[in-house]
Amino acid sequence: MTNTLEKPKPPALPALDEDQMELLALFEVIKDAHETGSDPPQVALEMVADYLQTAPDKRDRMAEFILHTEEAEQAIEEEIARLRRRKERISAARERIQDSVLEVMEVMELKSLKGELYTLVAAKNPSSVEILDDLSLPHEFLLPAPPSPLRPDKSAIKTALKSGKEVPGARLVEPKTRLEIR
User: Fold this and answer.
1) Are residues 97 and 133 in the same domain?
2) Residues 6+ apart with CB under 8 A from 21
3) 35 plus 95 within the same structural domain
4) Rounded distance, CA 81 to CA 13, Å?
5) How many domains, the chain?
6) Final residue in a domain of this structure, among 41, 72, 104
């Protein structure tokens, strides 16, 4: 029986000869120069030009390699999208089950359910801070954070809110219960 969930793997990349490997290294030198804002070494440019102008079969092999890598990139993008969708479905299923178990435990007023291997425990999450408006926060509750100059200091805000101090632009979020498996 074949597994219908498995996608066929793209064929292996065509092997590069020594000249092509050297050419790829030259492309890296040129790319690095461009990224640093400097001019690429003239010798590297000349070697690439010489390679691409010499033999048609070398150009064809390079074109085949480029086309194959484009196909491989597309196949990888499709696989990433498929895995993202699968992860979302699995996460949604886990969340539905956790929520259902927590709801049953709450209705039955149970703090834990013991199994043969695991114990399901309804555990309270700690309080958290929700930032409603960054611009309303007093300066004392902001931390420097590149690239923006300041970011909320949630720890200080939480301490202030728990002590009863009002912090404009923030509120204390009541803890939620999570399901732990021990």
Assistant:
1) no
2) none
3) yes
4) 22
5) 2
6) 104
Q: What pLDDT, in 10s, does the model give residues 92-108?
A: 999 999 999 999 999 99
Report the candidate in 142, 138, 158 with the shortest Cα–Cα distance to residue 150: 142
Neighbours of 38 (CB within 10 A): 9
pTM equals 0.53
- Spatial neighbors of 177 by CB under 8 A, at least 6 apart, are 102, 106, 122, 123, 124, 125
Phi, psi of 114 (to 5 degrees): -95, 135
Residue 109 lies in a domain: no
What the block records as the tokens of 74 is 């597309």
Alpha helices of the chain — where are they, by DSSP H? 18-35, 42-54, 56-107, 154-162
pLDDT classification of 109: cutoffs 50, 70, 90? very high
What end-to-end distance do the CA atoms of the chain give, in Å? 37
- Run of H or E residues at 152: strand 150-152
| Residue 59 lies inside a defined structural domain of this protein | yes
In terms of residue numbers, what domain contains 151? 123-181
Angle, helices 18-35/56-107, rounded to nearest 10 degrees: 70
Statement to judge: residues 94 and 169 lie in one domain: no
Phi first, then psi: give them for residue 170, nearest 5 degrees. -145, 155
Single-letter residue type at 95: E
Q: Which of the residue ranges 15-19, 20-24, 70-74 would you say has the lowest mean pLDDT?
A: 15-19
Q: In what order do the strands lie in the sheet with 112-114?
A: 112-114, 119-124, 177-181
The pLDDT value recorded for residue 12 is: 62
